[in-house]
Design goal:
268 residues; alpha+beta; Resuscitation-promoting factor rpfb fold; 3-stranded mixed sheet; 6 helices
Length: 268
Amino acid sequence: MTQRGRHRAPGRHARPKSRRISLTTSAVATAAVLLTGGITAAANSDEQPLPYVDVAALEIDATSTNEIRNFVVSTEVITVEEDLAFTSTIIEDATIAIGTEITKREGEVGKVEVAFQVKLVDDKEVIRTEVARTVITEPVQEQIIRGTGDPKSFAIAIKVAEQETGSRSGNKEYAKLWINQENGWSENQFACLEILWFRESNWNHKATNPTSGAYGIPQSLPGNKMATFGDDWKTNPATQIKWGADYIEDRYGTPCQALDFFYNKNWY
């Protein structure tokens, strides 16, 4: 082979020939989209536009933390004591003046024990559900008497007053009505009676003399004398007042004369 026809191999350090790449207009446009994040389409291109990406929104805030916690969920049963409301009943009574209401029996609340299932998250209550209820004490129903009768009737007025006896003021009001109607005594006579029985018992229907055994508002001696006006003489102020007024009328005539005797003898 002649030297002219021999091909010489490139040297070990020979520089490779450069290759020239030409980009079409479409390729340039696509590259621009990828680099800037914008959406640019060639005027006559059928390719779908690339989605918009908000690069700023994807940046990670170095100051924020994303800590994952495990919450502790538990349940327990607790019991609490609550009030149990009482109800009321109304009894209409034609022997009591209309417009008058008397509480015959006071209502009393009861007690109930309620069990709840409680759900806790990290030892904090988030919900409770009632699971059981046990009555400890039953409530006492309130009883109210409502008058429907003629307020001008003495029978009705004295009936109302009797319902209010038991307190000193109630006992006095009943005595005032009774002696005026049954004995014909005026307000002046009631003023004497008020002082007399204040000195004897302070208008307490349960008063007992520890020495003599005299009993009740008029201090009957013995107390069972008052049974002539009712077997309930020990507990009913009205029965005691009726007996006491009758005793004063029979023995002294009027409360003021009985009071004069009391001032002289310290008894009557």
